[in-house]
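Why do we care about 3D structure at all? Because function follows from shape, and shape follows, mostly, from sequence. That is the central idea of this module. The next example makes it concrete: a single protein chain, its amino acid sequence, and then its structure expressed as tokens.
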Amino acid sequence: MTTQLRYPIGIQTFEAIRTGGYLYVDKTAYLYRLVKENRYVFLSRPRRFGKSLLLSTIEAYFEGRKELFEGLAISELEKDWETCPVLRLDLSMESYDEPEKLDRRLSSILSEWESAYEISVGADASPASRFERIITAAAETSGRKVVVLVDEYDKPILHNLHDIEKQERVREKLQGFYSVIKGMDRHIRFAMLSGVSKFAHLSIFSGLNNLTDISLDLPFNNICGITESEMHRYFEESVSLFAEANRISCEETWDLFKRQYDGYHFAVGGEDVYNPFSVLSAFFKQKLSDYWFSTGTPSFLVKLVRRNDFELGELEGTVASESSLRDITDIGSDIVPYLFQAGYLTIKGRDAESGEVRLGFPNEEVSRGFWDFFIKAYFPKSSGNGIYSLNSLIKDLNDGDAGQFLTRLRSLISSTTSESESDKEIHFQNVMAIIGKMLGFRVSTEVHSALGRCDMLLESRTFIYIFEFKVDSTPEQALEQIESRGYALPYLSDPRPKILVGVDFSTATRTIESWQIKRI
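And the structure:
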């Protein structure tokens, strides 16, 4: 079924949306406050969340293109449309797998600006010196201060996270280039950098001490994405068409979209925000799918998780300080800030005791996509080990047959590798957490009780399983720990039978060695 509505999927130019009759969610009230109250701004948002469109809108505003804003909020707010020369640097159009590609991209953009302002360039001129001359020429030629917009400032770094040497070379190039902005204050009216992540070690953030990071600020929580009220304001017809095409009610459609694509919070107390790319894609294709997650897979995260002994089961409900979420200091030792900035985790609330923010997956699309990715990474189809059907494993757990379940898991777990993990117990915990997610059960790891933490709690519809894992030890020791520390006590009021499982893993065989089971 084809609708008459035009959805701007992949269109990141404000002019194209406004002149092409595409649906536009009006964010210009936020833009007005942004440019009136700030001069140097940084914004971090996940990929495909509307950062490029926001910068394009700001570009049109400072170019004085009043006609494009007719009927929008800013047309009532702005009384004095100013015109400024705009220098917009877009780094999203290159792979940057080699640092030299950054040189070529910068040189290409600088050459366009130099041609526009009739600037001759010496053969040995650096990108930084060329950028400085361009800003000066733009200001002097126009008699007005300059607007500098940098789109995807961090893409060259993100493309080299797996290679420390290349990452450092790219960082040095960008550091010198962006630092020009600091010294050109007299010529700059407004400057904004946007990207997925904020890297604390990039000196522009310490050098530009007047750069305002609005990424976690409540007034700008909704500057990108779609809020609940915006969904109802702009997409009532879309929901009706989707419901008709899928033969469901409008109420069911609203619920599906909310569970699938809503749930982002970029500030404590901020409204729920829907993923705009997935929402538009689903309405256009008239079916739900993991549109956002499928556009980029975090393959390097598997290496980071294995190298740094990160427990995947602790992601849902992990806590962090707000300040740590603003900057990525060392992605090699703490991946939580990156997962938040990249959109895999979001703010769920504030911990009353510690004052830290509680994080979790924003919605079903992200949760399912994240676990599916790790399932494929840990259990590749090419393993050739004759993986048992999921239905058999699910039946074992629903029947309370923990012994048969563990027997089946022996060959499944042996298809994974733990050679890169220094902490073998965490590796096996991650494997078990992934298996639990793969089977569709509720799984919690490192579950706190009065006397300690059990390694894993798995709930089927009929049983509660309490696991304790040991490495190169004995299952008897694992089972004794469950009983002596009362890991089952918090669940005694639940009518489902409890099954205590002590498991010993072998580093020699890289799989389950033996187990002990007790029902209570």
